[in-house]
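Hello forum,

I keep getting stuck at the same step: I have a sequence, I want structure tokens, and every attempt I make locally crashes halfway through. Rather than fight my setup again tonight, could one of you with a working pipeline run this one for me? It's a single chain of 257 residues.
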Amino acid sequence: MSLLLNAFAASRAGRDMAGEREDDRGVIARRLIRGGNRAALATNFNGRPYVSLVIVACDVDASPLLLLSDLAQHTKNLRANPSVSLLFDGTGDYPDPLTGPRLTVLGRAERCDDPRALARFGARHPSSADYAGFADFHLYRVEVEHGHLVAGFGRISWVERGELKFAADASALAAAEPEIVEHMNTDHADAVALYAEKLLGRTGSGWRMAGIDPEGLDLRCAGETARLDFARPVLTPAQVRAALVELAQAARNIQAS
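Reply #2:
Ran it on my machine without issues. Output:
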């Protein structure tokens, strides 16, 4: 079985992160960031921790992205002190949440005026289009410094910045992402549906690709999101095309069986 087939088989079965190797902790951490669409945000309020719920996306290197209102208390807090912490919770499918994976990211939230990053956030959260253009809403990028990973029961470790961020040059893929996503949704909607239904076991109609990065692709259907991880990074449009073709063929093979 190819690496890509191994990747979607693990995703479909519900990836057991506790089975990953110790040296894969950066990969595990990024999966939690990339697969999440919400997080608990902790900021500093007059020297005391203030925790709120936020919706999140991430950049191609897995840096978290937040679209925040200037009027929100957490935004006022981070403007006074940009140090933040984010909890990404991957325990939703676990009967005992304490045996499931979660990641606490520590870093600094900084204003980000990059239209490409804002477009990634909007693709992840289409409803944000209703307020993304308001003068009192701004995109923030969290420059990660450390992460505290609980990969499963008894598997706890600190993950440093160099492991948390995806380090390889993915600029070519980032530049081509809007075209790739539009092409797949317009010309290969059947393949996108097969990714969701046959490779991830999702139901419903109308699945669309919301984004792609070196380590996988994001799918969305109404308010539901899904993540399909690659087993090896893809850095160029040509590598993406080969990966998507292989996944489509694998999905069709499952459909035919």
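The two ends are 16 Å apart (CA to CA). If your local run keeps crashing, start a new thread with the error log.
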